């Protein structure tokens, strides 16, 4: 059997969830959209079911998968519904629903509901992606309150630049939010992972941690609280072939690496078809039997190559950590010019195993 595996440490997931709640002093929706950022939404939700205040997903398809697996806690649809016809299922499965656009507010007001829903009314406080315009916000809130269609409204917004710790934009967004919600008596929710970890003074009744649950830092720089996160996923495989090259020999497609010295090359069963980033250049770290090494040459579809020259003990069958507790996913992502969010979400073909 091909040795590529993603090991998922559910105790680390619980540790990270508790950290989000502890540092924020708020209730926390565990964001498990996109199959829990590649970690397996059902298994992650089951692991948190006993303690999570609720879950958040992108769409009803993801929510129904959790309900079908027996997840009974609240589930928030972060983009609400895409068509008004989804409201029947939202009601039937007791889902919470973001309203991010006036057309959604209108559709809800028109919908024939048997019982009132919990909605999260989203403000565009400056990210300019989704969310109601500040001028429409209070009126929409009051319209919903008066309609009898909602049981509870949480006021929410989303930061565009919370991962930039010395950028004033999050404070500016907060000021827009505070002005738009003046006089509205409801719970609020503003903070994603970077805001939970890096913006301790942001008010919130509810936080919405995603990437931090999986143990990756949302920041490019080192940050004290982010250092307390425990990586959840270990992406690993094995060395399946070894060869000795003299100096001056090319390795792999495009001869992107040429040996400068006699080089022992290890071939690892892991490639871009597994989600390992093809843009990871020579020098990207890996750990081989617990020792740091680097990849060399181009990543191919099913294999990549590593330099074993300085690891005489390593060889055929050596265990390779592509990312995990020793090599951080955020380091690999940075080398490949992307973010840990994307390399987790890109994971495919690799069997997940849980402990
Ligand atoms: C995805 C998402 C989050 C989680 O963001 P992280 O940066 O992964 O913590 C929070 N809120 C909303 C609205 C989202 O779409």
UniProtKB/TrEMBL annotation:
Residues that, per the record, bind substrate: 129, 301
Keywords: Isomerase, Pyridoxal phosphate
Needed co-factor(s): pyridoxal 5'-phosphate
Family: Belongs to the alanine racemase family.
SUPFAM superfamilies: Alanine racemase C-terminal domain-like, PLP-binding barrel
GO molecular function: alanine racemase activity
EC assignment: 5.1.1.1
Protein name: Alanine racemase
Pathway: Amino-acid biosynthesis; D-alanine biosynthesis; D-alanine from L-alanine: step 1/1
NCBIfam families: alr
Functional summary from the UniProt entry: Catalyzes the interconversion of L-alanine and D-alanine. May also act on other amino acids.
Sites of N6-(pyridoxal phosphate)lysine modification: 33
Alanine racemase C-terminal domain location: 232-355
Top-level lineage group: Bacteria
Active-site residues per Swiss-Prot or TrEMBL entry: 33 (proton acceptor), 253 (proton acceptor)
Organism field: Zestomonas insulae
Catalytic reaction equation(s): L-alanine = D-alanine
Cross-referenced InterPro entries: Ala_racemase, Ala_racemase/Decarboxylase_C, Ala_racemase_C, Ala_racemase_N, Ala_racemase_pyridoxalP-BS, PLP-binding_barrel
